[in-house]
Specification:
Layout lengths: L16 H27 L3 H24 L9 H17 L2 H29 L3 H24 L6 H23 L1
Helix pairs in contact: 1-2, 1-3, 1-4, 1-6, 2-5, 3-4, 4-5, 4-6
The chain binds fe (ii) ion (FE2) (2 copies).
The site of one fe (ii) ion has 6 residues, from helix 1, helix 2 and helix 5.
Length: 184
């Protein structure tokens, strides 16, 4: 559960442009995360994996709801339908490779998201601005850290050429998506 309520957060229109852009990318990311787990749940035939995805999905839906409620429609990415499709495709594709690939994908995505939130928190701390926003992002980052650890503990992820390649594709795809979502 998250302590901060959306009502306690500063009005989105009062925030500086850079922060609004970052929050737009967060909304896009959480949208992608929700649909990633939808894709996994749809195509997984492994009950353990489905249960794993359902429990993570619950948290991602909470995260998304915060941004949905807080951000105005003009502060959300115009590419939101694309982020849903991208998440769904990634989840479905990973499922084709089996449970190990799904856990590897979750570990990779969550590692990226942790770093993404961390950078935003650091910038807010350095500027000594909006501590309530930093606190909310910290709570979300903690959840993502838990998701990442959960994926790591479920499966021994071997460090092979193929896993390194898949990690690079997923990470670079996420970098690209964040860059687009900040602007559009
Ligand atoms: Fe999340
Ligand atoms: Fe997550």
């Amino acid at each position: 559960m998250h302590n901060s309520s959306v009502a306690a957060l500063p009005r989105i229109t009062t925030l500086p442009d850079w922060l609004r852009q970052e929050l737009r990318s967060d909304h896009a990311g959480e949208t992608g995360a929700v649909w990633l787990y939808f894709g996994i749940i749809k195509y997984s035939r492994d009950p353990m994996l489905t249960a794993f995805a359902r429990s993570h999905l619950k948290t991602e839906q909470q995260h998304l709801k915060y941004f949905e409620t807080w951000l105005s429609s003009t502060d959300k990415s115009v590419l939101t339908p694309l982020w849903r499709i991208a998440g769904w495709l990634l989840g479905s594709l990973a499922c084709l490779g089996g449970a190990a690939v799904v856990y590897l994908t979750i570990e990779t995505v969550e590692t990226f998201v942790i770093d993404h939130y961390q950078q935003q928190i650091l910038k807010l701390e350095q500027q000594q601005q909006y501590p309530e926003v930093a606190e909310l992002l910290r709570q979300f980052m903690f959840d993502e850290h838990h998701h990442c650890q959960d994926a790591v503990h479920r499966h021994d992820i071997e460090d092979t050429w193929t896993t390194r390649c898949w990690r690079a594709i997923v990470t670079q795809g996420s970098v690209l998506a964040v860059n687009f979502a900040r602007r559009l």
